[in-house]
Amino acid sequence: MTCHPRSHHRSLCTLLLLLVLLALSAAAQAQQQNRLQRMKIAPHKGYTKIDLFFAAPPDYALSSTRDRVRLVVRETDAPLFRRFRSYSDPRVAGVFTSLRDGGVSVVIPVKGGGAVAQVVGGGDATLLSLVISTNKGGEAVQPDILPGREAILSGAAELVNAVGTSPRAALPFVPTDPKLLKKLLTADEVALFLAGEEMLYVGKGAEAVQVFTQFGQKPQAVRALAGFRLGEAYALQERNREALAAFREGIALAPGHLEQAPEMMQLYAEVLAKTGDQVQGKALLVRLIGEQAGTPYMAPLMNRLAEICERHGDTEQALAMYRTVAQHAEGTEAAGRALMKLADRELFKIQRGRYPLLQQRYQAIYAAPGGQALRDEALFKIALLPALYGPAAEALDSVATYDRRYPRGIFSTIVKKMHQQLLLPVYHELAQAKDDAGLVQLCQDHRDALALCLAERGFIERLSAAFEATGKRAEEIRFFSYLAERSWVGDNGPFLLARMVEDAFALGDVSLAESTARRFLTRFPNDARGYRLREQLAKLSFERGDLDEALSLLGFLKGKKPQPEFAESSYYFGKALAHAGDHKGAEGALGRFIQAAGTSPLLSDAYLAQATEREALKDPRGALAAYQQAEKITDGELNQQCLYKIGELYLLLGMPARAAESWEQAVRQGGSGSWVKLATISLQDLKWRLNLSKELR
């Protein structure tokens, strides 16, 4: 006799339903004999770890009392491991293995009371690691993450625990028959009701609530329909108590309607469980699973039931159902979700070196049939594992790849934070290795994730040194210009702009240097780096002949502010003060420049300018000294000018012989310059007057 395909499919679904019912009363029975092959015990600070190695993945149940932990592995045999009965450490007082009811019982007495036990996955399904700690000890078992990854663990664990199945029903949405609505409502009201259902269909719960609350004063039949839809809308927003009230109002007005709307029954069952009545909620879901036998919706409903069990502490029942879905609904999205739940049990418990094995499980989920949400979650966890357990460079590459592929979405915020956190250890590795080229490339490749690096003291200076060491000043300008406009640049803005000015000057791009310096002074007028930039701008203004602006920029040199960084700034300041008629200020500024000038090419002009200001201040001896210093370091017409002025001042001071010597020296140089001509005329005039004076005597 040949079995009809539909009959065969229904038989398989009936088997699945039976497995669900068995899981609700006890964990599913293993289908073949297993064996506990060996055992390993290792004490650690705060906990004891017991590794149990099986021939096949174990089907187990874990329970504990205040002073004892018991692990039961079904359909398994084992040696008695008598030597472990005498084992002792600060927490464990022996391990006792026995065979009973076709399985293995492992009992571990715990010292001091307050036993805490958990199973930690290691990526190998045949290895069961049991961790024993005590509340009294006050030390919890910590995930085996790499040092410095604590912030990633905290943020990721919170998000992973918060992300659950969509609050939308696993069953298809069925709109209300428009013919029924037309009998109860006006045409405009029918359109409004159907618009509310459309909002439900596309997931706009808040908008749907606004629609269906408008039917609260309608006849009983309409209020009932609106009440059920309102319950769905509240459930979509996870407003479960309001959803429960709306569902119950609908049930009171139309008791039989829920039986005709499977998707509403599912949501009502889940709302019941979420608001405390898990017994009735689970019962309704089991009934619904039976009604959906032979349809593609049975496996997703089983996953929903498993989530309810897990949420209320029935972990073993939940795991049994997930395993059932994964095995019997293979190749479906529901199986992928079940496999995800099973893998998640090990996500924060795996031993550090075994994370690639768990990563492979998530990769298999990502590659298998499934919706975008499931694939996105799997890809996120593929990136998360090395971020917690793997080398920094590998972890950064994995997270950055995810960030580029999915810049928006439910995991994007945490991924961007992980991206920033993983840049720090990679930066430290490159800085320690003095890999300047690698550091520059790292920052250019991850420029939008540098917030935490920029917050670290010394980072931006180290990066700038790397740009300089690699001869990439032009690239530094472009990169720092980009960073300077980011809101997360923190307190680094002044350094970035100041460094861009220096690079632009070094590259000969005076226009860019000037515009960036002015931009700096506008944004950071009180920053100490501004003094240097004012000096640099004053030089440009002076060279353009804009002495008024030079004076304004260098005004800080009048007070007790920092001394000029460039000696020439005192020269520009003195010349600008002279232009403004401040002879005393100009003479002082020029004097300060002369003291600090060294071999500056401006020194001779500074002496000449100083002499001029002293003349204006009626200080002929001071002016004479300045001209004499200038005469020593000048030649040509400037030297002739100095000799002529020295002669004038000697004459003014009543020393005509000295004046004549100075003018004669100028005349001996020869040439047709104006200063030689003036010296010749002055010398002739002096001799005439001296001769006349002798004759008169």
TrEMBL record:
Sequence intervals crossing the membrane: none
- Natural source organism: Geoanaerobacter pelophilus
User: What does the UniProt keyword field contain?
Assistant: Lipoprotein, Signal, TPR repeat
Q: What is the protein's given name?
A: Lipoprotein
Ranges occupied by TPR repeats: 224-257
Q: Which Pfam families match?
A: TPR_16, TPR_6
Q: Which residues form the signal peptide?
A: 1-30
| Keyword Lipoprotein in annotation | yes
